[in-house]
Amino acid sequence: MDRKRDDEGRYSTQITPENVLQILRDADTPVLTAKQIAEELGCSSEAARQKLQSLYENCDVGKMNVGARAVVWWSEE
């Protein structure tokens, strides 16, 4: 995804909760990592993780730790 910057050099396209949920719904696998979602959105893994955490706190997505630092996410729909 090609992201545009505003006049101040900041990214003008925001990552919306709906964008993240749509990627999870359209996935070929039942779970995704923040890195996989970030690649789809064209953003950093940290930006994707923060959006996922917010969705988790609203009970829109589920998550599970599967390793020392590995976390997988899925849509609760």
Describe the fold and architecture.
It is a single chain. This protein is α+β, with helices and mostly antiparallel strands and 77 residues long. It has helices at residues 17-26, 34-41, 45-57, and strands at residues 61-65, 71-75. Helix 2 crosses helix 3 (45-57).
What key attributes describe this structure?
two-stranded antiparallel sheet, 77 residues, 2 strands, globular, 13% strand, alpha+beta
Helix-strand layout with pairing:
Blueprint: H1 17-26, H2 34-41, H3 45-57, E1 61-65, E2 71-75
Antiparallel strand pairs: 1-2
Helix pairs in contact: 2-3
Order of helices and strands: HHHEE
Low-confidence stretches: none
Largest sheet: 2 strands, antiparallel
Tell me the strand order in the biggest sheet.
Answer: 1-2
What's the β-strand tally? 2
Distance between the termini: 25 Å
Gyration radius from CA atoms, angstroms: 13 Å
- Helix segment tally: 3
The percentage helix is 40-55%
Mean pLDDT: 89
Shape annotation: globular
* Relative strand content: 5-15%
Helix/strand/pairing category: alpha+beta
